[in-house]
């Protein structure tokens, strides 16, 4: 198991420090996107700054992507395999459940192309659908 995690980091050109291995292991166990605070709680005791740097490094190297779900805290989720350093392909819809307050990736649901007025250039698209997830729906 540890070997797999280490290989994942090395494949992404990330130096596999003990802390980074722990962070990746934690991310792999999650079913939804997590915030820095979730990570801090999950890896207690841990240093918030070190964790933040690990997440930022993962994001920079194409291992995780960040999601602004409007909750005020940036969430992080593992990328699909085709993300590269400095170039993310995670143009999928994210879903925020109003009941359990979890944010999930919907990787099969792509963000539709949005036609912008002349002179506007898109740099980033974020699409959050809010509602009730399949675990909470009655
Ligand atoms: Zn990505
Ligand atoms: Zn839910
Ligand atoms: Zn996602």
Tell me, rounded to a whole number, the average pLDDT.
93
Please give the CATH architecture: Orthogonal Bundle
User: How many domains in all?
Assistant: 1
The rounded Rg comes to 16 Å
Q: What is the number of helices? A: 4
Q: At the third CATH level, what is the topology name?
A: Arc Repressor Mutant, subunit A
GO biological process, one term: regulation of secondary metabolite biosynthetic process
Binding site for Fe cation: 88, 90
Pfam family, one: FUR
Keywords: Iron, Metal-binding, Zinc
Would you write up a description of this structure?
InterPro entries: FUR, WH-like_DNA-bd_sf, WH_DNA-bd_sf. Its cofactor is Mn(2+); Fe(2+); Zn(2+). Keywords: Iron, Metal-binding, Zinc. With 138 residues, this protein is an alpha+beta fold. It has one domain: Winged helix-like DNA-binding domain superfamily/Winged helix DNA-binding domain (Arc Repressor Mutant, subunit A). It is built from four helices and six strands. The strands form two sheets. A three-stranded antiparallel sheet has the order 1-3-2. The chain has a three-stranded mixed sheet with strand order 5-4-6, with no helix packed on it. The termini are far apart. The mean pLDDT is 93. Bound molecules: zinc ion (3 copies). Residues 97, 99-100, 102, 133, 135-136 line the site of one zinc ion (ZN).
């Amino acid at each position: 198991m540890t070997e797999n995690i280490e290989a994942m980091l090395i494949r992404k050109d990330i130096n596999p420090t003990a802390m980074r291995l722990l962070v990746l292991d934690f991310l792999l166990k999650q079913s939804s996107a997590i915030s820095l605070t979730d990570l801090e709680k999950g890896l207690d005791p841990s240093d918030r700054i070190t964790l933040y740097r690990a997440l930022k490094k993962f994001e920079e190297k194409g291992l995780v992507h960040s999601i602004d779900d409007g909750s005020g805290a940036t969430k992080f989720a593992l990328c699909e395999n085709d993300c590269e350093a400095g170039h993310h392909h995670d143009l999928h819809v994210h879903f925020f459940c109003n009941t359990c307050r979890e944010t999930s990736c919907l990787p099969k649901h792509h963000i539709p192309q949005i036609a912008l007025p002349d002179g506007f250039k898109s740099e980033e698209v974020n699409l959050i659908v809010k509602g009730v997830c399949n675990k909470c729906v009655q």
